Amino acid sequence: MKIKIKQTLCALAVAASCSPAFAAADAAKLHDSLVVMDTHLDTPALLVQPGFDIMHSHTFADDFSQVDVPRMNSGGLDGGFWVIYTPQGPVTEAGFKSSRDTALLRAMAIHKMVAANPDTFALATEPEDAKAIAEQGKKIVYVSMENAYPLGEDLSLLDTFYKMGLRMVGPVHFKNNQFGDSSTDPDGQQYGGLSPLGKELVKKANELGIILDGSHAHDDLLEDMIELSKTPVILSHSGTKTIYDHPRNVDDSLLKKLVESGGVIHVNAYSSYLKELPQDPERGKAYGELFRQMGNIAQMSEAEIAALKAKRKQIDMEHPAVRATFEDYMEHFLHILEVAGPKHTGVGADWDGGGGVETMMDVAALPKITERLLAEGYTEEDLADIWGNNVLRLLQQAKDYAQSLKE
């Protein structure tokens, strides 16, 4: 159970008279007192894999996973938004149906995780659920959807996912789809922002009380959502173009628009969005071949998955990954805090979806962020906002607007 610390520990963390060990101990104590959430946990992709048990301890070096209960406990992670993700496929009826089935299986996997471990996890659907669940010593399970593509052109499906707990939705992923433009489609923009159906998605999400997520969206789509949405928009896992000018990141001007509308940006730890990394064509070629051989991992046997991971380890040994550093990550974080402020900033590191930087490769390392922010002069109140209160405010605003339509 979380124990509320009354006094701000920032001064202790940065005081010259404090030894590093003493400061780190106080930072850890404060971190453990907070409701700590990450807004983009891609771990449901692992829940559908035969042999993966989230209750058991894993390591990134062994199976490339980044989230499990033992590591959540070590890192003080109370939970967050668990992602229903489907890759972008053809914008056709057949594509919609296939992705819908994948999305439903991911949603069911989240529910099965909770049902199988009722003493460890609890489904959260209301803003007040987070604190109550954390106080019970359980892990918070909000549900989000990255890429609304599985909804096809039938927005009534959003009602179905809402009933399954969905409280956050992002219209697009790597490519444009029926809802609008992606920031990374190699063919460029198709709509100039939201499509007509995308505008209907915004309206429908508002009516249900679902937060709209602009991560992966083209800047024009994000601007459209900020303008059209009746409640603030989130960037659940994004960075800043000021530090690294990548299409997945946002510039200060757009970030200020997000903040002025009440929105929040949660900082991504995906290395290739943090800085320019040296390219290894042989590594890319080897991984490309591995992915072509992979097929649907949910339909593979445990032995086949083990063989796949062994091939991946071999590639990493022959062609080591080059990652951004923790300092690269904090450079984004601190600039975003300077522009947006602590009431509009959070953490969405993209765990189990490609996130992770040197010395912070899984959720066990999350206290490093708290320790660093305390050293930079941020307070207990700031940390409480960053780790949970900001996204819960958005959830409350989304809920309040939806309820106002029924009055």
Automatic annotation (TrEMBL):
It comes from Alteromonas alba. The keyword Signal applies. Residues 1-23 form the signal peptide. It holds the Pfam family Peptidase_M19. Coiled coil: none annotated. GO terms for biological process: proteolysis. This is Peptidase M19. The keyword Iron-sulfur does not apply. One of its GO terms (molecular function) is metallodipeptidase activity.
